[in-house]
Fold each of these.
Amino acid sequence: MSRAAQSMLLVLIGAAVLWITVGSGEYVNYVRPGFRYLLAPAAIVLLVLGAAGVRREWRGTRDDDHPAEHGHDHSRGPRVAWLLCLPVLALFLIAPPALGSFTAARGTGRTAPPPAAPTEGFRPLPRTGAPVAMSMGEFIGRGYLAQTGDPASLQGVPVRLTGFVAPGVKGEGGWRIVRLKIACCAGDAVPFPVTVRGLPRPPSDTWVQVVGVWTPPATGRSRTVVQAVRGRSLQKIEKPRTPYE
Amino acid sequence: MSDHAGLREAEDDLLPPAEWGREPASPGSRAAWMFGVLAVVLVGGRIWLAPHVSARALDAWSTIFVAVCVQALPFLVFGVALSAAITVFVPASVWRRVLPRRTGAAVPVAGMMGAVLPGCECASVPVAGGLMARGVAPAAALTFLLAAPAINPVVLVATAVAFPGSPEMVAGRFAASLIVAVLAGWTWLLVGKGEWIKAPSRPRADPAAGRLEAFGQAMRHDVMHAGGFLVVGAAAAATINVAIPADRVDAVAGIPVASVLLLALLAVLMSICSEADAFVAASLSQFSTTARLAFLVVGPMVDLKLIALQAGFFGRRFAVRFVPLTFVLAVSVSALVGGVLS
């Protein structure tokens, strides 16, 4: 791989990363939103590095008699570096979407452990009868607490959940609304599923908001059961700006 | 050995072919072999793979592949920048002045010094070669080589980011990697023979082109080397994530010894840069802490690209002894440390 090709590849990578970070905002499909503060400077460093290399090639000030250091010549890149084109091509040509029901279905065997409650405990829910919007993680955490402790803390309160549609599991009835939780990047996504009963199932991967009331799991079931709601209303929505929790 | 042959093909402008002492296969027979392998892969893929590949599986694959690349990129870039700065602006003679005269004592000091070279394993091999060429005892230089990619601040920060809320993973990685590096150095001091290492003949020459130019050159070189292998690792991680049925991996993940060995082997095969491997380890969430620790300890010390680099710099006679020694030490020490942690 020649030095000109290396420099231009660096410019390409830097431009692609900068584009998905500050241009299109697609980076939230792959990493947590906070990562933009790392991604943008890294992309700029790559752009500058590549541009400096291209400028030097342009001016023709190549030092070809540059001594070969420790066994191999630094001026020629390894062939394996061509592979760096692959993620750039994928970003521009495929623009991989956020993970959806395929990944959620793969995790059905193992349910994520219920998220721990904040140290001061969940705030008490308002009892006005209006639906309370909450994240899937919070709902599952509250559901787990209600299941193991005081069911009255959640029973009868309508909640509004946002997620995508995934098929249900046999024997459970209904279908599932799922939001994926990532710790770092999409590679470590774990599903937060909630079973919805009493509403018609939209097509898989449709983003929806469901208003429903928590139904306590049947007694005698294991503690890691998937929490369920009795649905009251369903609204199709656009994909949220941050697809993961 | 087919792994070595494959590597050599991919890297033949990185490694001097003469080092391998291998008779070149005639172009005709090589093409026939390639064709045979390709035919087997295609037929096998049609029978076993094609029924399971759907558009949604491909989508998930490409998302995870891009996600691992994007996630690792900032750490790679900043790590390489720091490594290039130290390589260019700190002369190697400083290292020799800092090390104790007695080799036995120099080994642990060299291991601790690994904590200040924020590079990945591609960077540490040339630096260790430079140290040897400037008179540092091989055992100490090798300890540095093993420790530097695993316990430097960039890698530890990346590990802490990848495992939020479990600082024991960072501590375990630091402790286990340092212990393995020091033990390997002492073992080499006791039983190693000088003639096994082909000392690098050319010391690092200061380029006349100016420091800033040398800095850019070193950075470009490291990004190209490490980035290419990172893409390989991301593709392997995405494939494992999408293709291997979760219950089958879970079945292995439940067996203590098998899971440790499986992840250690995966670390060797996937050859992920140490600045990025913590994120892959975090995605293997069905495995035990011990198994993931083994992945993090083995990866920066033994993997396919390192074997190739070490054989290139120090000769094959060195690599066939040093690589198994490091692998066995890394697996057993991380099993012990993982047992203490969990």
Amino acid sequence: MSYSNLKRVDLIFDKECNPKEIIKNTWAKSNDQIINELLESGLKGRGGAGFPTALKWKYTAEQPEPDKYIICNADEGEPGTFKDREILFKVPQKVFGGMAVGAKVIGAKEGFIYLRGEYRFLLPELEAQLESFHEILKDLKIDFRIKIIMGSGAYICGEESALFESMEGHRGEPRNKPPYPTIAGFRSKPTVINNVETLVYAFMICMHGARKFKDLGTADSRGSKVFSISGDTPKAGIYELELGMTVEQFVEEFGDGDTKAVQVGGASGFCVPRKKFKETIIGFEGVPTGGSMMLFNSSRSMFNVLHNYLEFFEEESCGQCTPCRVGCQQLILGIEAVKKGERHASYLEHLQKLAQTMKITAKCGLGQSVANSFFSIVENFKEEMIY
Amino acid sequence: MSKKINLKIDGIPVAVDEGTTILKAAKQLNIHIPTLCYHDDLCIAGNCRVCVVEMKGSRTLPASCAMPVSEGMEVMTNTLKVRTARKHIIDLLLSEHNAKCTTCYKNGKCELQELAAENKISTASFIDLVPHKNYQMDAYSPSIIKDDSKCIRCQRCVRTCEELQHVSALGVAYKGDKMKISTFFENPMFEVVCTNCGQCVNRCPTGALVERNYLEEVWAAIYDPDKHVVVQTAPAVRVALGEDLNLEPGVIVTGKMVTALKRLGFDSVLDTDFTADLTIMEEGFELLTRLKKALVDKDPSVKLPMATSCSPGWIKFIEHTYPEYLGNLSTCKSPQQMFGALAKTYYAQKRKLDPSKVVSISIMPCTAKKFEADRPEMRSSGYKDVDYVLTTRELAIMIKQAGLEFASLPESHYDSIMGESTGAAVIFGATGGVMEAALRTAYEVVTGREVPFNGLNITPVRGMEGVREVTIKIEGTVPEWKFLEGAELKTVIAHGLTNAKKVMDSVRDGKSNYHFIEIMACPGGCIGGGGQPIPTNAEIRKKRTEAIFAEDSGMKIRKSHENPEVIAIYKEFLEKPLGHKSHELLHTHYKERARH
């Protein structure tokens, strides 16, 4: 397979990796050294929000509390994302390794993997892999254990504080922030919670040093990223690519020749129309993504696409806060009313204002990000919304 | 002293304690930020988002109720951005809310309605969601009606039921657009662990949770020339009713209330205080008898500690949650039910009335009393002992309906018989009051002397702490109660069912050796009851409590056993405490209920 425009990277799935060696070498370093290395690499969270990983670890390490936790967020629920499943399936030891390093840095004795309910099929193999990883830790006399907790299928539980609630046996609802997890996370103790991919990159940075990672990507978006590519493409699948490409470059590689829009970052992400392919960079300087890339060709109705996303949010909202619970219902009924001619096309502007309110007043990232796809689809495909 | 944090709200500098929320900091500057899900008594939810404010440097508008202040913070509460967002949020809530305000029971008392009015939400700009839902009203309970179509999901009720009452009859079910407040398996409130305490009703901002009202039934009885309608008023009503009639919290309105009831057309206005005193006689002797059986007769079947049984919310709670302790409950009916049983027997006989023509109404600070009156056991007179129970709020509505200018009403006295009261009876309305009243009588029965507290005020049992333990040493007993000489009577008082649970767990785990337990289901006791005027908070409850004790200290007679009507009823009718007639009319039994 050729990658004319794009640089393919092989850090995540590279099997040339001896977890025991990396852990041994990393344990020889001070926590400050590890944090500095991560800081130097420029690694940002790969779940989508993009918080610098080194800072998350540093803040948690600074907490005087004796009990701390590291949690791997494997509740991969964003529509169009399936890369964490692949990572857990192919290189689980690297995930565990990243957690162990994080635990060393922050001073945690316990780690948890919160596994998406739909990924239960991965559990037996993961448990077996975990057993051998625990053997490595035992050999190296490292006091750290990982436990896998199964989710039950709610998208909202991928939101970190809702995830803690779920782990604690409560209804999966986001908490008020602050306090942030670095201060009060799982069981109200300082907690680092990282995406699966982030942990593997952290581990790979420990293995190769910051340089190898930092040399990839752009100033705002260092390194590479695993993409889940789906939709109207002949090459659907998982690809690890250098960050910094434009949507145009991406479409040249993965499009079917008739791509009219790319949804970057899943239902909570942004829709990039053909006319903006050239100017839009995939990364924190343009459109960030947790990895989901959905391509749509001219046979697709963007009304249906948006409707589908809104249905998803309407159902997956936890329902506690007004803007998200009621806002999603209004957006969906609103676009239906416009489409049916029951409301004037100008009602879309009213809905856009509502989406803006949701973006700034919803309690958590779910409700806040509904506006992303709503704005970008309604603005760029207005005629499809009305006619 | 905690650290001070400096911030600016709407350009005004203010220094507040670390950990203060923006909402509370604004309050210190007399800046009012509207709220809905926030309630003084409850933990912070931050879910309605009505209280959002602008914060310099923040992309989003944080909920001021949930956001702690930080040094140098700059907050704006009244910008275009804030107002637009707030209006949107109120508008969204209205779109979800069955806004048939003119026919709503809470019309004029609804916080959402107030917000809508304040923000001049003219025509609903969003699509009405109510027709898209399949709402069904839960109107099966004799106490509480739940109408989901009016629910705005603020979860005040859920937090009340969980935090204050440890009952969790109400919880959140489903998610997203289907998210709702529901019960175990979505059963009617009537069929779940709900204690009917009505604390959720006190805190519901809309008409989603209201008391079942019996206004029309009571008016019909009053207007029926064939019926003799007697009304009894509970102790806590007289210190709270004024709040619903334009008076400040803590104003004692006993005399005005009696006048109002007479003007409404009740044939006889009587006092639950009379049977509160009677309760003390029965319950006091029951306790002493149990102590005697345990200590002298060494009867292993005697159940100690003995717990009070005046609070029907507490009764239903123990029936569901600690059924193995039903034998520890006093068998005394509550004062309301004693009154009801006597109204259609003793009272009817004395007044030469046909008991089938007597309609017995009670005015209670309580919604659980409605359920209590409906219990099948509560028909010892041969009729339904208490026909209708009205809350303090319902009485206020009747007074308004009758066009009475309450504040200017003259004062008048209760009718007789069964209208005589003592200070001991009045304090039934506050947490610790039953204990204090019982001690005033029991101590005197056992020692022949008054309780050794200045002015009969047994201050250690008073207060607002959730659980209060008090030990009273008994000295100088009369011969009949000699076995109690030197004994230490261990008592405990709890209010709010979360505190009741603490007491019962400690009893169950053998961590305590109480003799006598007073439990009231509601925070502060009956003065904080689920039928009292809305709003409620610690400050309001404190004022009502102070009023209760002021009423007590102003009474000529302050001990139940000195109530002349109580003395007379034993002489003429009941013979003696725990006698045959008492057992028939004044005592009851309990039943185990499911735990869900």
